[in-house]
Amino acid sequence: MTDIVKKIEDFQDKSLLIVDDDAPFRTRLSRSMIKKGFEVTEAESVKSGIIKAKEVKPAFAVIDLRLEDGNGLKVVKEIQESKKESRIIVLTGYGNIPTAVAAVKAGAIDYLAKPADASDIEVALLSDPSKKADPPEDPMSANRVKWEHIHRVFELCNRNVSETARRLKMHRRTLQRILSKKSPK
């Protein structure tokens, strides 16, 4: 682990709130973080995340940006109101600059794209927020980022090819060819 200023043992308050609607991911992450020394509380929605944030007032938080009942930034704001010094990481499967900016403005110290493993999350939570993060060892290729974005818009358009093509400003047949291919590495 590079650039970790502190270890979890150096913190008095080890409380960690994990808010994610993907139950298998949330459970795996919780188990891993408990093994790393965090005291974990889980929530699966914005509503339950806000309730748990008020109860626990966590020192650390890992919040999924898109939850079934709304935007995870509502939970970030709640945590910031109750405990300003909390270290909050926002996770999302759809990384883009506007949402990263919104997450940081809401009070997050870092923004990670899924899939992020427990080690990446631990490094982000324990690193000095004022220092610049190391670049990822194995970032997504530009082709993969493009493919992910197209598929995200396709899903948001309820898998409607014509509507997706219109929003992406591309020809429908071009979009159909892209959608029929496997994801690039």
Order of helices and strands: EHEHEEEHEHEHHHH
By DSSP, the count of extended strands is 7
**Based on the structure given, which CATH architecture of the largest domain is correct?**
3-Layer(aba) Sandwich
Shape: elongated
pLDDT below 50 for ≥5 consecutive residues: which ranges?
none
Verbal overview:
There is one protein chain. The protein is α/β, with parallel strands linked by helices and 185 residues long. It folds into two domains: 119 residues, Response regulator (Rossmann fold); 39 residues, Arc Repressor Mutant, subunit A (Orthogonal Bundle), CATH 1.10.10. 46% of the residues lie in helices and 16% in strands. The chain has eight helices and seven strands, in the order βαβαβββαβαβαααα. A five-stranded parallel beta sheet has the order 2-1-3-6-7, with helices on both faces. Strands 4-5 form a two-stranded antiparallel ribbon. The radius of gyration is 18 Å and the shape is elongated.
